[in-house]
Amino acid sequence: MSARFSIRKLGAQGDGIAETETGDLFIPFTLPGETVTAARERDRAMLMAVLEASPLRIDPACRHFTECGGCALQHFEAEAYRQWKREKVAHTLKGKGIDCEIGELVACAPHTRRRVVLAARRADTGMLLGFHRHLSPEIISIEECPISLPEIVAALDRLKALAELVCATTKSFRLAVTVTGSGLDIAVYESGKLGDNQRRVASNFVMAQGFARLSIDDEIIIEPRKPVVTFGGVAVAIPPGAFLQATEAAEQAMADIVGGHLKRAKKVADLFAGCGSFALRLAARSEVHAVEGDAAALSALDRGSRFATGLKRVTGERRDLFRRPLTFKELNAFDGVVFDPPRAGAEDQSKQIARSDVPYVAAVSCNPVTLARDLRILIDGGYTLKSVTPIDQFLWSPHVEAVALLEKPKKRR
Fold first, then answer.
1. Binding-site residue ranges for S-adenosyl-L-methionine
2. What is the pTM of this model?
3. Is 71 in the active site?
């Protein structure tokens, strides 16, 4: 049964929040100041109708919006949306007692996402390929996607056909599709064990469609061309399922900010280095020690550096920085540090950096909550927070990146 609600503000995940006698009620696809009807279930509700719309409500860019769970905020006017993301970072830092001027959000353009993770499942009506409905296991098949690069959208029918060929399960499975300089790199997960004939048919299909690679659960099934991306002009052949920043523009913006901060550092430690998006750019002017827990990513970084020209010395170290962070004594060998951890942040590593004498530190994060925690550790350890720049690369989602730059007076050794 539906009821009438007034939306007071947006929550951290982009849902509108209405105050009720039993607490906050979260209603997706609504905006502050709106009056709506919604069907309530505990602390969440499904939007039924907008009775009084906010002046900031706009027409969504995609026909699948509100059904497909890929986007949460297509209905939000662009400038207000950007300010909301910027304020999200500011509010989170302020909650840790960090009062710093937050830079303007680096905006994300439509049609720029180079990596998407699609959900697939065989149904009675055929293969479903798309995204999960908001807070639901149901898969909504898509015919368009205004966040993704055109190469991905143009391949949706062929990707659905490939999903049909590799499907060996009644459950849903995932296709991570990445646009590379060599073509589409398709990494499939949890699709079931392929038979020999399935493997042969899928391989022939990949060859015929001009895809760069197909892997299943990180096993390469066929690789007509090595998927290559470039970091600062350095070509890197990435492993299956490799982590990449979602858009090239956001990656370059982050690299420019980090590189500018570390330009005086002769020796830099790149922690959680991945395939080298920071390390290989920084190596144009600094010696770089790249530390990464994933062997395949580190190997890709190493190969890229060895075949590149004009780089300073690049060394690599495989190390689980969650279990064994670089100690402050090890860090003292460097003039600069950049760290870009997963969403969990780098609490233990931050404690070691805080104890170190490294004069320049750049913290990159996809989670304002763990960033605030880690920055608090660094500030309490004697670092001064110089700037924070929020960066949008997950368009129309609640996710926001940030790059924080810190300095500490260098001690004489």
1. 245, 272, 292, 340
2. 0.94
3. no
